[in-house]
Specification:
Layout (H helix, E strand, L loop, with lengths): L1 H14 L3 E9 L2 E9 L2 E10 L13 H17 L7 E10 L5 E7 L4
Parallel strand pairs: 3-4
Antiparallel strand pairs: 1-2, 2-3, 4-5
Length: 113
C-alpha cells in the first residue's frame, strides 16, 4: 500500500508542477520519500498513506521526532549534494485509501513544518 500511495502522490506532485529529482533517497540517517524542485525551491516531501484512522490520521504520524529526523536528512542531503544557499521547504502529501486501495482523498500540505 505504501508504494502505491507513493506512486499516486508522485503523479499528483508532477501534475502540480513539481520536478522530481529523487525518489526514496536513502542514507544512514533514514529515508526521504521525494525530493523535488518547485519553482526555485528544493522541496523535501513526506508521503503518508492510510486505509483507516484506527492508529490516527496520516498527518498524526508526522510528529516532532519525525520532523527532526527529516531536518537531519535534508541537511545531510544538502551537504552531500553541495547545495549552498538554496531555498528549501518541507511538504507532506496525505493519502486516504479505501479497503480496496482506491484513492479516497489526497491532500498536499505545503510548508508543513
Amino acid at each position: 500500500m505504501g508504494r502505491l500511495g507513493e506512486e499516486i502522490a508522485q503523479k499528483y506532485l508532477v501534475s502540480l508542477g513539481y520536478i522530481i529529482v529523487e525518489k526514496n533517497y536513502r542514507c544512514s540517517l533514514g529515508e526521504i520519500d521525494v525530493i523535488a524542485w518547485q519553482n526555485s525551491e528544493l522541496v523535501f516531501i513526506e508521503i503518508k498513506t492510510r486505509t483507516n484512522n484506527l492508529y490516527g490520521t496520516p498527518a498524526d504520524s508526522i510528529n516532532r521526532a519525525k520532523q527532526k529526523r527529516l531536518y537531519r536528512l535534508a541537511s545531510y542531503y544538502l551537504q552531500v549534494k553541495r547545495f549552498r544557499e538554496v531555498a528549501c521547504r518541507f511538504d507532506v502529501v496525505l493519502l486516504q485509501m479505501d479497503r480496496d486501495y482506491q484513492l479516497k482523498e489526497i491532500e498536499l500540505i505545503s510548508q508543513a513544518f
